[in-house]
Amino acid sequence: MEGFSLILAIVVVTALAFDFTNGFHDTANAMATTISTGALKPKVAVAMSAALNLVGAFLSVEVANTISKGLVDETGIRPEVIFAALVGAILWNLLTWLVGLPSSSSHALMGGLVGATVASAGTGAVHGDALVTKVLLPAVAAPVVAGVAAMFATRLSYTLGRKADGKAAEKGYRAGQIASAGLVSLAHGTNDAQKTMGIITLALVAGGSLAPDSDPPTWVILSAGLAIALGTYLGGWRIIRTMGSGLTELRPQQGFAAQTSAATAILASSHLGFSLSTTHVVSGSVLGAGLGRKGGVVRWSTAGRMLVAWCLTLPAAAVVGALAEYVTGLGDWGTALVAVLLVASSAAIWKLSRREVVDHTNVTTAEEPPGVVTAAVAAVTPPPAGAAAEELAVTLPAPATAAAKDPATPAAPSAA
Question: Model pTM?
Answer without folding.
Answer: 0.72
